[in-house]
Amino acid sequence: MSVKLDLHLIQSVYSNHSTSLQQPPKGVLRLRKSKYSAAMKRVVAKVAVVGCGISGSICASSLARNGVSVTVFDSGRGPGGRMSQRREVIEDGKELLFDHGAPYFVVRNSEVMGLVQEWEARALVTEWKEDFGSFDCGTKKFVDIEKDGVSKKYVGLPGMNSMCKAVCRENGVETKFGTTVGKLDWLEDKKSWHLTDLDGQVLGQFDGVVASDKNVVSSRFTSTTGRTPPLDMTLAPELALKLQEVSAAPCFVLMLAFAESLSSIPVKGFSFKNSEVLSRAFCDSSKPGRSATCECWVLHSTAEYARRVIAQYGLQKPSTFLLSKVAEELLKEFQSTDLNIPHPFFMKAHRWGSAFPVTAIAKEDKCLWDGSKRLAVCGDFCVSPDVEGAVLSGMTAAKKLLDIFSCL
């Protein structure tokens, strides 16, 4: 049976592009262009991508480069998700920037490496060439020092969200930040999706949907908003079974700024051993392209510590009092290391309520897919709990939609 889409004629998506945007990334995106460009030059499908983290951004970029009209919805103030960069302006007007989510990423997959090489050529990412290690809170000593060059660690320029920002500016991608999708309804008679926001305002009608934010189907959406999740999973029962398996660990982060270098710390990133409070610490200001006017660190709590706090105070938006309490506790643990940590001139805590997935629900499939409703679910929780997993999942979700659109 043929499927009728709400399609209209457009000019090629590549017209009026800058040279850098005309060239698709190496690997999978380059292959897609040759496979799908003929069909996509004639017509364009409309796709909604919910969530503008790295997975949703990559999916949106791949679709747009092949002629699909993409609208990205995100409840945040800008792109990035857990690759966001936090901007803080203190009393003297000084601006502080923190990568308060993913501190860096590594690459093992050849398709992702092709994309990273394109980002490097466009000065969107570079290697973070510093020593890393572990600190044993029991012995108060650094152990397992990993010298630069053992494994390549990549960071965004000038922030971890640089890649998400760049792809969101590409032709064919429209972004709507500060917009929370409240409901996704499948219109069987029109074979399309109808989206509304939390106030019931219509966001548009789309031929396909990509959910890169697991909260659209998570009970956490109810915990934080008091509403049912936007996507009724009875529409896709097979996907619903998989999504029930999604589990993520929470995390608090503490952003710190010091007037002087923490010279007692011999590395720029390290994990904690034998600490019930802290899991990792990174010197953000040591990354390439960052300001050197002060030394900025980002501390990550353990999942166990975050769960204890959430169990006591709930999943609602944390109060200023709670975040201040968490900040004091994380700083106290940092200073208990006997590393001569002075009091920072700036500190602020942030909560990631479902920061790190602990399961991969799609595995080799890389995303969840319902072809009958042109619905894809992608993210690091589908492949692996890291940036590379999120990228692979977003690429695969775009492939699924492009395959079905090219056959119509």
Mind explaining what this structure looks like?
This is Amine oxidase domain-containing protein. Residues 150-401 form the Amine oxidase domain. Pfam families: Amino_oxidase, NAD_binding_8. Helix 3 (54-64) runs parallel beside helix 10. The chain has two domains: 19-79 and 162-245 and 360-406, 3-Layer(bba) Sandwich (FAD/NAD(P)-binding domain); 87-160 and 248-357, Alpha-Beta Complex (Polyamine Oxidase, Chain A, domain 2). By secondary structure, it is an alpha/beta fold. It starts with 18 loop residues before the first helix and ends with a helix. A seven-stranded mixed sheet has the order 7-6-15-16-17-14-18, covered by helices on one side. Strands 9-2-1-13-20-19 form a six-stranded mixed sheet, with helices on both faces. A three-stranded antiparallel sheet has the order 10-11-12, with no helix packed on it. The chain is globular, with a radius of gyration of 22 Å. Mean pLDDT is 88; it is low at 1-34 and 38-42. Helix content is 27%, strand content 27%. The protein has helices at residues 19-22, 28-42, 54-64, 110-121, 162-168, 219-225, 237-243, 303-313, 320-335, 387-406; strands spanning 46-50, 69-74, 86-89, 95-98, 125-127, 132-136, 141-146, 154-156, 173-177, 181-187, 192-197, 202-206, 208-211, 248-258, 269-273, 278-283, 295-301, 346-357, 368-370, 375-377. The longest helix is centred in the C-terminal third of the chain and has 20 residues, at 387-406. The relative contact order is 0.17.
